Amino acid sequence: MTPADPWPAPRPAGPVDGTVRVPGSKSLTNRWLLLAALADGPSTLHGVLDSRDSRLMLQALQALGAQVTWAGPDTVQITPLPHRPDVGSVTIDCGLAGTVMRFIPAVAALTTGGVTLDGDPEARVRPMGPVLRALEQLGVRIDAPESAGPEPTTLPITVHGTGEVRGGRVEIDASGSSQFVSALLLAAPRFAQGLHLVHTGRSVPSPEHIAMTVSVLRQAGVEVDDSVPGTWRVAPGPVLVRETTVEPDLSNAGPFLAAAVVTGGTVRIPDWPAETTQIGDRWRQILPRFGATVSFEPGTESTGTLTVTGSIDTDGTPTICGPGEIAGTAELAPTVAALCLLADGPSSLTGIGHLRGHETDRLSALATETARVGGAVQEGTDRLDFAPVSRRSLKPEVMQTYLDHRMATFAAVVGLAIPEVQIQDVATTAKTMPDFPQMWTALIGTAQPGSGA
Ligand SMILES: O=C(O)C1=C[C@@H](OP(=O)(O)O)[C@@H](O)[C@H](O)C1
Ligand SMILES: C=C(OP(=O)(O)O)C(=O)O
């Protein structure tokens, strides 16, 4: 069902009390799909996310010669790319998916033909230079329209694969995105000499996502040495996926957990992995800083239920502590920012400059939307500093989402505390969570009248 546009953000009648099953992780889905396409035999993946980004990844891998069958709503069977497939001249739509536009060029280099990658207009400003320069250092020819100059840094590009990538040592500056590193590591077992990747810049953002890449490669039997900080060595060799299950998306669990904090209610997320490389596991440390109680109850051997309960004042009003400084939240930043906007004390999100290269310039978008509803924030080059304002002074507005799924969920969390907020283009959440409007409405519907948000 197409949601209304603008969409009236549901307002809870009191504290929410619900259990939310979140779909598969975007980052794990797209890594497993890619590895299955490079594997030595067919694979079956369970818990696969069905969203715009994962469909784009599947279509890209199919264009490069993989065979894909949906065997259930979240189960996909994949027959890998043949050896050196001749794909002719193909165009791949990357949409606005960082994982597709950054991860696919190295896979395209393993085919023969001309593979053109393009995407949404907003994708054409997302940085990709370091991935392209690295592939060139490894002997891959890449070209782009003349207007892009001799060293293209953005879409559209064409990869002219020869069916083989030499591999070996390569240096890149990955301070703009961890995806530059992940992109090269994921295809590296199929490079003739494997890969010795050295990062030369400032720190790499989202280190959790690189740890995730290393972890999935190891689970697929690939030898990876990450013992030297800023350096990764991947041995050439077979990729063995066979059968695996994707964990739920803990980043996308964030807005639902935040609803417990904002309303002083309780939200449970089942199937939470006991151990994970997902950055969303940091909710366990982040949410207590806003006054919430977080508990984990083991269920199966490897998963349990995460429960978050927001804090309530003596007079029954939900309270959100000002957490002070929170560093390096990466893709969690928009949800954390919504809590900072509503918090009773000051807070700063630091080390998030690279969010300017996400689906939109998220620092600027978060600052603009915070100010739109009457929140107080200062935008720095790589930080946001929030000052507390009274909830009563916040204004109902139509919040803009900039084609960014996490700006839509940011607005939904803010909309819990301000009557009559509307969200422009909530459907943009289809990038990673197509059912968000229904799931959100169902959770907010669990709120019972009483002390309210
Ligand atoms: O590899 C991945 O799956 C991702 C890496 C991160 O990118 P950045 O390092 O650009 O933040 C993250 O923010 C993005 O949502 C997904
Ligand atoms: C930055 C994000 O996505 P992408 O994979 O497109 O980089 C995100 O989901 O927050």
Automatic annotation (TrEMBL):
Compositionally skewed regions (Pro residues) per UniProt: 1-13
Reactions catalysed: 3-phosphoshikimate + phosphoenolpyruvate = 5-O-(1-carboxyvinyl)-3-phosphoshikimate + phosphate
The protein's name: 3-phosphoshikimate 1-carboxyvinyltransferase
Gene Ontology terms: biological process: amino acid biosynthetic process; aromatic amino acid family biosynthetic process; chorismate biosynthetic process
One Pfam family recorded for the sequence: EPSP_synthase
Domain called Enolpyruvate transferase: residue spans: 12-438
EC number of the protein: 2.5.1.19
PROSITE patterns linked to this entry: EPSP_SYNTHASE_1
Organism this protein belongs to: Micrococcus terreus
Region (Disordered): 1-22
GO cellular component, one term: cytoplasm
Active site annotation, chain numbering: E331 (proton acceptor)
Keyword Transferase: yes
Keywords: Amino-acid biosynthesis, Aromatic amino acid biosynthesis, Cytoplasm, Transferase
Residues where phosphoenolpyruvate binds: K26, G98, R126, Q179, R362, R406, K431
Compartments, as annotated in UniProt: Cytoplasm
SUPFAM superfamilies: EPT/RTPC-like
Role of this protein: Catalyzes the transfer of the enolpyruvyl moiety of phosphoenolpyruvate (PEP) to the 5-hydroxyl of shikimate-3-phosphate (S3P) to produce enolpyruvyl shikimate-3-phosphate and inorganic phosphate.
UniProt entry tagged with the keyword Transferase: yes
Top-level taxon: Bacteria
Family affiliation: Belongs to the EPSP synthase family.
Sequence positions that bind 3-phosphoshikimate: K26, S27, R31, S177, S178, Q179, S206, E331, H358
Molecular function terms, GO-annotated: 3-phosphoshikimate 1-carboxyvinyltransferase activity
Complex and partners: Monomer.
